[in-house]
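Exercise 7. Given the encoded structure of a 122-residue chain, write a plausible sequence.
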């Protein structure tokens, strides 16, 4: 886990080819003291890393980001507005790689869309 105690998994299920995971963000985590005081915003790099951790759980693999071909930050994730975040992950595994098409949503509002390729560690 990148940031200890930053979030906890509340629910995770698979619907067709998509994993849907609901997490609860600790709105009192120290990351928000600097990003930003009085107006907490979840850093984009942390949102991207949440997907990597999600993929590692579902594939039982250690992964390294090979490339992100499409990353769109569409809305601020403010844990004071809603401390829950839903990650939707379409995963395809092949030849030592894991391909992701992911969407992060807060209150049904899309916060992040990401297409990425990860390499399985050897």
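Solution.
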């Amino acid at each position: 886990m990148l940031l200890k105690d930053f979030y906890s998994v509340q629910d995770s299920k698979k619907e067709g080819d998509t994993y849907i995971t609901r997490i609860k963000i600790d709105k009192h985590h120290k990351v928000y003291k600097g990003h930003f005081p009085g107006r907490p915003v979840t850093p984009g790099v942390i949102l991207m890393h949440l997907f990597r951790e999600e993929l590692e759980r579902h594939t039982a693999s250690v992964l390294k980001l090979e490339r992100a071909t499409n990353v769109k930050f569409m809305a601020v994730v403010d844990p004071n507005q809603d401390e829950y975040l839903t990650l939707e992950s379409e995963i395809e595994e092949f030849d030592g790689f894991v391909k992701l098409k992911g969407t992060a949503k807060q209150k049904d509002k899309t916060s992040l869309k990401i297409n990425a390729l990860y390499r399985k560690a050897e």
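Remark. The chain has one domain: 7-120. Students should compare their own answers with the one above.
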